[in-house]
């Protein structure tokens, strides 16, 4: 059975999206980006909300940019190879391959995907992840914590949630970013 992983870059004070849109620094360098690519290479299905999909669709063509570094080209190839499900009531069409739109989040469909998949799945975006967390679907939480305190926005963990997590991996990067991987007990 596959795991469902929730992962995002988050501010030091726990916001996955800052009120002003800037989450802070720390994830821009090659060391971090290569690490993220290695962590998510085994993921073969990404679950996105509309806004997160619109951010991530950049990877559909990133490999074709002039002078693209090898680690960026590799991440683009990995992203293109994965299935993508976009949960949106407003999105009319998608601009990436292996992508489909679902109008509503269906926990039973995600349970079935997890049960039938040989590869892990990822849920991205704090609003969609909140639904998966509420349904008890998230198996691991991967936080990439920046050095910034942003003071408000959309929290990584939804308000009112209580979880018992076990730290299973951590890493500090020279940029100041900290990676923390937790497993649901």
TrEMBL record:
Domain Bacterial bifunctional deaminase-reductase C-terminal, chain residue ranges per copy: 3-178
Superkingdom: Bacteria
TM regions (residue ranges): none
InterPro entries, sorted: DHFR-like_dom_sf, RibDG_C, Riboflavin_Biosynth_HTPR
Pfam families, per the entry: RibD_C (PF01872)
Name of the protein in question: Dihydrofolate reductase family protein
Phylogenetic lineage: Bacteria, Bacillati, Actinomycetota, Actinomycetes, Micrococcales
């Amino acid at each position: 059975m596959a795991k469902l992983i929730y992962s995002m870059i988050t501010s030091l004070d726990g916001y996955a999206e800052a009120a002003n849109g800037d989450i802070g620094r720390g994830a821009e360098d090659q060391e971090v980006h290569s690490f993220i690519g290695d962590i998510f290479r085994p993921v073969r299905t990404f679950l996105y909300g509309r806004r997160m999909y619109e951010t991530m669709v950049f990877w559909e063509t990133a490999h074709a940019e002039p002078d693209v570094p090898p680690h960026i080209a590799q991440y683009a190839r990995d992203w293109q190879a994965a299935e993508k499900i976009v949960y949106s009531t407003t999105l009319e069409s998608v601009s990436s391959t292996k992508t489909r739109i679902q109008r509503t989040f269906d926990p039973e469909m995600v349970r079935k995907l997890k049960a039938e998949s040989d590869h892990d799945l990822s849920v991205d975006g704090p609003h969609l992840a909140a639904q998966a967390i509420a349904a008890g679907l998230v198996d691991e939480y991967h936080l990439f914590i920046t050095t910034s305190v942003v003071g408000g926005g959309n929290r990584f963990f939804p308000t009112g949630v209580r979880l018992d997590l076990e730290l299973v991996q951590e890493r500090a990067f020279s940029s100041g970013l900290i990676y923390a991987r937790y497993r649901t007990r």
